[in-house]
Amino acid sequence: MEASSININDERSVRLAKLADLIHEGINPYPARVKRTHTITEALRESHDTNVSVVGRIITKREMGKLTFFHLEDESGKAQIVMKKDDIGDDVYKRFVKKIDAGDIIGVSGKRFITQKGEESILAHSYEILTKALLPLPDKFHGLENEELKIRKRYLDLLVNKELKNKIITRSRLVRALREFMYEKGFIEVETPILETVASGALAKTFDTHFNAYDMPVHLRIAIEIPQKRLLVAGFEKIFEIGRCFRNEGVDHQHNPEFTQIEYYWAYADYEDNMKLHEEMLPRIIKAAVGSTEINLNGTHINFEGPYPRTTFREVVLEHSQIDLNIYDTKEKLARVMKEKGYAVDPKAGFGRLADDLYKATARPNIIQPTFLLNYPAELKPLAKKADDPRYTEMFQLIVNGFEVSNSYTELNDPIDQRERFEEQARNKEAGDDEAMEFDADFVEALEHGMPPSTGTGIGIDRLAALITGSHTLKDVIIFPTVKPIDHHTTSPNE
Q: Is residue 78 part of a domain?
């Protein structure tokens, strides 16, 4: 590349020139083989004068004549590397100073030592370029400051934002502990379809696509419930799946259209058994993830040690809105009193949706400590068995700090009741409720073959991880949150 073609103010052009120089000198800037004897943390534990070979990314670089200091970082940690011109040779030293930049990934072989200022370091004897970076790192002091850019260039934010990276690692520990707990309790892990012909298992809008081979419309699943219940019919008694679900809805601090959850189903058990399992499971997996069953959220201490208090949907709505759902027990009555008290009313919503909107606006934000909230209206839970009061269902949600962490039922296994619930959902959909559930005739037929009494649970992994890491938004614990792409026809890829 000719010098006249280089814009010295364009970092990428300058680095491309350095890349070309390295190649011209016979150096492969992207070799396939790496020499590594220690991670950086392992190397720093070695005694002085021990020879080590480490690899990593150059984070900072400071030249002082015949001496250059730089910090090298791998996944395990960061170390200061000292390079002396007299030790490494004039040409090799000059190449490092002139052609190697912060952001480049290199290998260093050297000896453990301590500097005059007392900093544990590595004295380089040789180095090898492993990856020449053509674009610089974000500013080492401020990182990425634009919030949208942080999500769009998530790999850079993770590179410089150690708090964010630790949240992702905590999430991984949480999922591992959850999986190990389920195995310990005798559950087996299954995998069920993501593409479905009938979207069911939750009240939500779907992502829709077309299956060309069969020339038919299909949906990305909104839950993992129905296939697992078919497995209960098939004779499986304890099953779980950790997987992705998709809901074509808005994005906010508690919602992402693509999310991860665990759903498990347990035959010959009911929601009382399930609450006891929760009180054993949650303290165990949270302690495994963060080291304690207590977390601090902006000064509020939340304790996950059981047992958890219990209340009902009707009780909390009455407490926080002064509206008794047993009195205002139709869509028309509830809509009228909500309007009188100044609450928003969706004209397309049925009674259950109105009750849920009222609960979310008044009661849920005030539930801070882990609390079992029982017996939601039957219209909201078309797959749950009815409670003694048939207007409600035998189910619970675990609410923490205004978050719905878990959604659990004593599962409906009466095919006649299930058919009637699906028919009610179909009427709601015809009336304009686009979150209403579709009629699943195949599932009703499966129930007619007999599904044992069962309980089931769905736990949002993203929400639970956000909660225990003190995150204000799910985006902090999702590696690559959904973001609207840049129009590359009008925007440079380097912007």
A: yes
